[in-house]
Amino acid sequence: MESYSDKVMEHFRDPHNVGEIPDASGIGKVGNPVCGDIMNLYIKVENEVIIDAKFKTFGCGAAIATSSMVTDLVKGKSVAEALKISNRAVAEALGGLPPIKMHCSMLAEEALKSAIEDYLKKSGKKS
Amino acid sequence: MKRIYLDHNATTPVDPEVLEAMLPFYKESFGNASSVHEFGRTARMGVEDAREIVYKFLGTHDSQEIVFTSGGTESDNLAVKGVAHALKSKGNHIITSSIEHHAVFNPCKFLEGEGFKVTYLPVDEFGVVDLNALKDAVTDKTILVSIMMANNEVGTIEPIEEISKIVKSKGIVFHTDAVQGVGKIPVNVDKLGVDLLSLSGHKIYGPKGIGALYIRRGVKLTPILQGGHHERKRRPGTENVPGIVGLGKAVELVGKNLKKEPEKLKRLRDRLHYGIEKTIKFTKLNGHPTKRLPNTLNISFEYLEGESILLNLDMEGVAASTGSACTSGSLETSHVLISMHVDTAIAQGSIRFSLGKENTEEEIDYVIKVLPPIIERLRKMSPLYHGKQGVN
Ligand SMILES: Cc1ncc(COP(=O)(O)O)c(C=O)c1O
Ligand code: FES
Predict the structure, then answer these.
(1) pTM here?
(2) How far is the CA of B245 from the centre of ligand 1 (A)?
(3) What pLDDT, in 10s, does the model give residues B102-151?
(4) Mutate which of B282, B307, B337, B382 to test chain A, going by most A C-beta atoms within 10 A?
(5) Domain ranges, residue A96
(6) B 307-326 residues with CB < 8 A to A
(7) Domains of chain B
């Protein structure tokens, strides 16, 4: 297999934002149908801005690094901006992923979308 | 940083004595073994000396029964496709197991494409082939049975002698892939009752890209390659003389060490196993508890995914593997563990440690020391571990 970029290894070695948010505004729990890996993403929203994000991931090195990166990326962003973050953007921020590992970054995008969805439902902004 | 190699089922370092034996055949003795002059005769001698070492090691006395190949994969292909093609007028049915290496599995798939029928025998939870299923599968169209001697991923040793009794009583040709067995457990073709047997150089401290196939006299085989007269036309192509000489030396050395080396490996392997079990909760051994290669420990760390453990071990200088090296570029869960009905989540957390002769007790103790914090750190990250905190 093609090897991971330095940035991926950096995030894998020392992932940011590991954990749960007990009073999360939104929670996204998704599984990767390709490999069976799982990601839980928690966001805390105030005034439509994501002020905190944490994750728990059962997955490969790429899954853990993208979890770490996506939680970094969303912090400080508005909910609307965060919705635009794609798996490609996360992968690019990590200096790219081996082609066979691109699907792992889908986990991050979907977990984020699902957490925002959950927030919108809970706050009555969407039914 | 210390570098500790615990991936010997993937490949082994070349023994310095092996390298030493090979070098002259790259330098002054570079001749083509088919040439009649002095250069050629020296090369031929190297090849034939190696052949003698191999056939004696396998317990036979017939030099014509050994064919040198480019490795385990080619030996397996030559055996499976060679016999199938030679005997296709007699029948079209092949029996193999569901845990074979891809070097046997994929040739079988290929033959299915040509119209052969293949039965993939189930295994039990330890990876042992179901003998009753074998008895039931045999028909009068069965021309070949191919069952591996020992599995590369979990190390389970198959009951080859018993399988042979069933297969030979029906007069069917029997092949075994002994790539992982050679050097770790005794291999004698008559005692095992096999007609064909594959072995590979780089798993036994020999060079990569060289192997051999034992073919019992009288067994018909259609070659894969067409070319010159080399290897009695069964494997044409100018012989890889240094490789063959290296394979011979490697076989000689593992043969000499077969009395004490496996015993030592088993002691170290068990030390690693107990060390892990003592310090880490929620682990599960994959493979047979006793009928297992002495160097192999395949263990699942529940709530975790293998690659993340592997990368962390690598950062500590420890080289192990998840599943088999050949499949780690793919995303599929190991077909071996799935066939053994290991739960998928648990299969994903499996790590294979495979020890070799240069490993020491200090190295094992180092692994036992660095592993628990890795597992604990990763489990804190795992959504599946929720609610289990504090127990480990
Ligand atoms: C059981 C088994 N069969 C066949 C092979 C293939 O051997 P080689 O790498 O020499 O082609 C291997 C190793 O990769 C193996 O473990
Ligand atoms: S292989 Fe499953 S997320 Fe990467």
Answers:
(1) 0.93
(2) 19
(3) 999 999 999 999 999 999 999 999 999 999 999 999 999 999 999 999 99
(4) B307
(5) 6-121
(6) 307-308, 311, 315
(7) 4-11+259-389 (3.90.1150.10), 16-256 (3.40.640.10)
